Amino acid sequence: MIELTSRSGSAPARNISIIGIGGAGANALDRMALDGVAPARLIAAHTDAQVLAASVAGRKIQLGQTVARGLGSGGDPEVGRCAAEESAAELRSALEGAETVFVLAGLGGGTGSGAAPYVAELAREAGALVIAIVTLPFSFEGKRRQAQAAEALAALQEQADAILCFENGRMGDAVAPRAGIQTAFAAADETLSQSVRALSGLLGRTGLIHLGFDDLAAALRDVPPRSLFGYGEAEGDNRAFDALAQALKNPFMDKGRLLRDCETVLVQVSGGPDLMLDEVQLLMEELNRSLSDQARLLFGAAVAPELAGRLTVTVLSSLGEAQTAAAPAPVVTAPAPVVAVPAPAPVAPQPAPAEPVLEEKAAVAEVAPKIPAAPAPVAAPEPVTESVPVPAAPRIHKPRGLRVAAQQASLFGDEPFAPIERVAPPVPGRMLHRPFPERPAPEPEPVAAVEPVVEPEPAAVVEPVAVPEPEPEAPAVVASVSEPEEEAAPAEEPVPEFFAEPVPELEMESEPEPAFEPEAVAEPEPPVVPEPPPQPAPVARAPFRRPERRTPLRPTEAGAAEPAAAAPGPGAKAPLQEVMQFEPVTRGRFEKSEPTIVDGQDLDVPAYLRHRIKLR
Amino acid sequence: MAKDQILVGLEIGTSKVCVMVGEAKPDGPIKILGVGQAPSVGIRKGEIVDFENVHKCVREAIADAEDKSDVTIKAVFAGVTGAHIQSFNNRGCVNLPEDREEIDETDCEDVAISARDVNIPQQNAFLHTILQHYYVDGQEGVLNPVAMLGRMLEADFHIVHGVGNRIRNTVRCIKELGIEVEDVVFNGYATAQAILSQQQKDLGALVIDIGGGTTDYVVYVDGAVKQSGVLAVGGDHITNDISMGLRIPMAKSERLKIEEGDATLGNALPGETIFLKAETGFAGRDVEREILNTLIHYRLRETFELLKRAMDGEPYLPMLGAGIVITGGCSQMRGIGPLAQEIFSIPVTVAHSRSTSGLVSAAENPQFSTAIGLLRYGQAAYANRPQKDGFFEKLRGFFGRR
Q1: DSSP structure string for B34-71
Q2: Reduced to 3 DSSP states, what percent helix, strand and coil does chain A have, rounded to the nearest 5?
Q3: How far is the C-alpha of B119 from the C-alpha of A604, rounded, in Å?
Q4: Lowest-confidence range among A238-247, B73-82, B243-252?
Q5: Lowest mean pLDDT among A151-155, B100-104, B156-160, B174-178
Q6: How does pLDDT run across A414-428, given as a tens digit for each residue?
Q7: Which residues pair with A162 in a beta bridge?
Q8: Which residues contact A231 (CB under 8 A, 6 or more apart)?
Q9: Are the Cβ atoms of B298 and A563 closer than 8 angstroms?
Q10: Quick one: which of B127, B130, B263 has its CA closest to B186?
């Protein structure tokens, strides 16, 4: 405990350095400084002293004072590289202590192409995680530059842990063809800036459903990388859609069309404490329309207090020669621990100011890291995610408790081993839970260990699922979702109880969930719900009962919204629908107009009611 | 008469007020100069329920039309519809005076007047007395008896009448804008003029105009109107059904209907859903496509079955050589043609108005069939009306065969 307390208390902020190399890199860096990207050290490195002088970066390194004499590199990568080598000592000192280094460069020119791979190498030697974010030249810049860019890209690939590579050519689609060139370049810089912000957020912010560097690497795995990146941020009632629309509007997405060809797509949704599960669900369903059925979806969700009221979506993928889901694992293993360390740290402090309830929860948080601690030495990558669920717990906010809890539950879908199993489901909206079916195979035990932590009460930590009662809603969800992960045996008993009890108390808000989770349950393990006889149908029936009890009006809606999968469960449903038909007939908008009576029938009453048509 | 005539059709529909401005030579195609539109407020099932608001809508639509066509609108042909409109067939009979054997135009007028000599509800007024056939001394199939010799002139008429005050409300609404109403036309009849060619009328056809609030129908057999009517069920009912069946707001269901609706059952993939975006006051949700289609299907099926039942009383259904033509805004519903065909077992086409020039895009929208039909009606009325506009000539123009 003591150890844990100290750990959660001293949350070391992730040490991020962003180094912009060459003209393009410096521009992007300036843009970033203006945008106020997450706290990071900004370093501008260039051969051209003039450009450097204009830069607003915190630290400026003039490369190759003797080689380039403060002038540019003349478009020669050799000069660029020599210059960087000459300034190696300075670069090293600048990069010292950084845990993550973003290398920004426009490839094709001299400094960017020549120095960037070298800088990446230095950063790597310094023990940092290196993410290169580069642009490829416009095609009109000539074959020579294209070739230089390709060469530099290949060199970078050897050094960097991940590469995000954008084609300037696509910028043409980004902005109107007649837009000023300044606008076009500003758009390019903005994309770079956004991507850095999104990536640093992605890596630094521990998610409810965490995405680690492993996921990032998986999403960007294609070898001649051509990255797709979209970032959207919105607030308001429709923020989920607006954000997604914005993200897909990014030129590199080609309005989401390119996503169809992607094999692996990483999506992170983050929002303030008010982030709602149905928002995430809606958004993902919408996004799934743009994806192919085979796409592997790496989904993450994070809550950050500073995002209050807003929602951001980051969509990241890459296109390239078909490289099927071989193994992100090897790539991942090395960097994963790096991510793991800081991951839980920032989380714990976050909830503290946010919530009064937190005292208990903080306790949970403290307990949490312990659990990963146990398996940690065994398998390096695991701790990452295992620690994740824990911080999630304290974030349960009373009003939204349910949603968050559900999200949290799906956390288990996020162990580093998971990506392979997280094949994007063809049916939208369920991906949150899809992982579960396959889940038991890889890691049933540690998961089970984590689960109790998820329970809102510290008490629950000791005794798994059975105990918690205070907030009936939350446990219900947690229990049901987490179920399939375990071997189902231990939890089986308590679960039905939860199902039964909290149900009537569910509030409107929780509505989407019932639809969700039973499915998750139904697919992997139909027998989970013991009472009703047949297999998947009875499970699906659960959501039916809920709305029904809630308000008399619900059934229709539920019926309408109910996915086809639920159709075969007629036992409970059929009477329901019939009951509805005996409701007093209404004429809707024609209530006050002159009735249209033909052959003794009031035609203003919906035809389906008069003809006794069952709408499932 | 050779001079081009500017015609204006004004339809006060349940979903929109539409002003169509066209230019027509007596027998040439109509050139559409502009269309003015305004969404309707205060119309239910084709009838005015909020005079003030309708007044505003009409003014808006007229201003819009004047704007777009660059024509100052002085007089319009107004369309009316509503469940109050009824029709029947009747035969009129005139015996020529002893001292005259040649049938003249006065006799033709008289025979129409005699045909209207029937009991209709007191508050009702005649809307149309549409000539079907003349009989001269019992001889059938006379098209134009003028100048023929005979002792007795008979004629079959299709008579359309409706509640006088309701029709007058429409007229008043327009007249208050300082615009003359040249004639009031039953929408269904007007639509048929826009949709059917003379050949189709001769072969026999049923025109079904499914609009927002009403479904108007007209049966042509042997080139003459045999049956017509209004069923106060339209697209709004579909919307209402969707709204109630899926429990979503009206505006949502209207959009859902237009964008996704299909009248075909079993067309959706099992479990296929349509996503409704979240908006203020509406949490987004999924709607199962099959349910949506089911709602639409049963409403339209019922509508067609009611029409068929109305037809069944008369022998005309087997005589429709040109089949059934569906038009009106609601005819844009996917799968409506096959559904109608299944019910009537007669070839069905979904059509918009034919042979116009000018603003062709307007003509190609089935929503404007009625408005264009009003122009055609006006064109025919002018063609039969001598320029000097004598009283009898004017009447003849109205009642003459078109």
Answers
A1: EEEEEE--SEETTEES-HHHHHHHHHHHHHHHHHHHT-
A2: 55, 15, 35
A3: 30
A4: A238-247
A5: A151-155
A6: 334 333 333 334 444
A7: A131
A8: A194, A195, A197, A198, A246, A247, A250, A312, A313, A314, A315
A9: no
A10: B127
User: What are B348's two structure tokens?
Assistant: 């069905």
Predicted ipTM? 0.82
pTM, 2 dp: 0.47
pLDDT, position B355? 62
pLDDT surpassing 60 at residue A549: no
User: B298–A615: do the CB atoms touch at under 8 Å?
Assistant: no
Closest Cα in chain B, distance from residue A604 (Å): 7
More confident residue, A337 or B198: B198
Contacts of A590 in chain B (CB under 8 A): 44-45, 236-237, 240
Look up the CATH number of domain B86-161. 3.30.1490.110
Show which of residues 252-291 on chain B sit within 8 Å of chain A, judged by CB atoms: 270-273, 275, 277-280, 283-288, 290-291
- Cβ of A563 within 8 Å of Cβ of B232? The answer is no
A140 Cα to chain B: minimum distance (Å): 42
The alpha carbon of residue A394 is apart from the nearest alpha carbon of chain B, in Å, by: 27
Interface probe, candidates A573, A603, A612, chain B, greatest B C-beta count within 10 A: A603
Contact present, B8 and B75 (Cβ < 8 Å): yes
Residues 6 or more apart whose Cβ sits within 8 Å of residue B224? B130, B131, B132, B133, B156, B158, B201, B401
Q: Which of A589, A610, A613 sits opposite B240 (nearest CB)?
A: A589
* Alpha-helix runs per DSSP H in A455-550: 458-462, 473-482, 494-500, 512-522, 536-550
Chain B residues with CB-CB distance to A587 below 8 A: 240
Mean pLDDT of B355-381: 83
Most confidently predicted of A320-329, A516-525, B181-190: B181-190
Listed by start position, the domains of chain B span: 86-161, 198-352
Which stretches of B196-266 are DSSP H helices? 198-203, 235-246, 250-260
Find the CB nearest B294 among A565, A603, A613: A613
CATH class of B198-352: alpha beta
Of A427, A593, A611, the CB nearest to B45: A593
Q: What is the radius of gyration, based on Cα positions, of chain B?
A: 22
B245·A560 Cβ contact <8 A = yes
Token look-up 């070839």 returns B347
Burial of A50 (0-12, 13-18, 19+ CB in 10 A): exposed
Test mutation, B49, B288, B303, chain A, max A CBs within 10 A: B288
Residue B28: count of CB within 10 angstroms of its CB = 12
Tokens 């919530």, located at residue: A355
Q: Do B245 and A238 touch (CB under 8 A)?
A: no
Q: Which residues of A323-338 are buried (b: 16+ CB within 10 A; e: fewer)?
A: eebeebbebbeebbbb
Rg (CA), chain A: 27
Scored b (16 or more CB within 10 A) or e, A529-538 reads: beebeeebbb
**Looking at beta carbons, which residues of chain B come within 8 Å of A560?**
245-247, 287-288, 291
Residue B128 token pair = 């149309």
Distance CA A340, CA A141 (A): 42
Taking only the tens place, the pLDDT of each residue in A487-507 is 444 434 444 444 434 434 434
Q: Give yes or no for A563 touching B (CB within 8 A).
A: yes
Which of B40, B50, B239, B246 is best to mutate for the A interface (most A CBs within 10 A)?
B246
Residues of B in contact with A596 (CB under 8 A): 45, 83, 231-233
User: Quick check: A606 contacting B, CB < 8 Å?
Assistant: yes
Predicted local distance difference test score (pLDDT) of residue A25: 81
